[in-house]
TrEMBL record:
Basic and acidic residues composition bias: residue spans: 75-99
Domain SAP: 135-169
Alphabetical list of InterPro entries matching this protein: DDA1-like, DDA1_dom, SAP_dom, SAP_dom_sf
Transmembrane segments: none
Species classification: Eukaryota, Viridiplantae, Streptophyta, Embryophyta, Tracheophyta
PANTHER family, sorted: DET1- AND DDB1-ASSOCIATED PROTEIN 1 (PTHR31879:SF2)
GO cellular component, one term: Cul4-RING E3 ubiquitin ligase complex
Family: Belongs to the DDA1 family.
Stretches the record annotates as Disordered: 1-22, 73-136
Identification of the protein by name: SAP domain-containing protein
SMART domains: SAP
Length: 179
């Protein structure tokens, strides 16, 4: 194909520059004058005062952005790996969870800590039979059945269900004290 004047470009010279004449650009396509600073930043001159007020104090962090980003990511990873109970740590990150140990420090076989018949203990409402930590060891299914018996909402995560049961238990104990 010839690159003469009557090609498929629509007549007229300049190629694509004729379509870009009125558009803002850095001068690479539409400018016929060679720039003294090709590919560089444009220089703008301000016609007003640009210095900050005297009382303005600007503090900058002199730490390298890469180092700052790495330390922030490390802090996020450390804080994210610590659970409320401190179960998961970065040393124990092989895919297995650590067994939840009792607060008082003594080990227990299977669920000997839990109440033998949690249904009667919950209905009784005595705090000596069902310590508050026993709610945490119950299954979600059992927690939901307790909530259903009490006419409370059964939706939510396990910790929300436990909190709802504990709040109901406290309310029942206060009601019993008033009577």
């Amino acid at each position: 194909m010839a690159t003469g004047g009557g090609g498929g470009g629509g007549g007229g010279g300049g190629g694509a520059s004729k379509y870009l004449t009125d558009l803002p650009s850095r001068g690479l396509f539409s400018s016929t004058v060679v720039s003294s600073n090709p590919g560089g930043l444009r220089v703008y001159l301000c016609d007003h005062e640009t210095s900050p007020p005297d009382d303005q104090l600007i503090k900058t962090n002199q730490t390298n952005i890469l180092i700052r980003s790495l330390t922030l990511n490390k802090q996020k990873a450390e804080s994210g790996s610590k659970d409320v109970k401190g179960k998961a740590t970065t040393e124990n990150a092989k895919g297995k969870r650590a067994a939840e140990s009792p607060i008082d420090g003594r080990g227990s076989a299977k669920k000997s800590n839990s109440v033998s018949n949690p249904r009667t203990a919950f209905q009784d409402g005595s705090s000596s039979r069902t310590p508050q930590k026993d709610f945490q060891h119950l299954t979600v299914e059992r927690l939901r059945s307790f909530l259903k018996e009490r006419g409370l909402p059964t939706k939510g995560r396990k910790d929300e269900l436990v909190a709802r049961l504990r709040a109901d238990k406290v309310a029942r104990e206060e009601q019993r004290k008033e009577e």
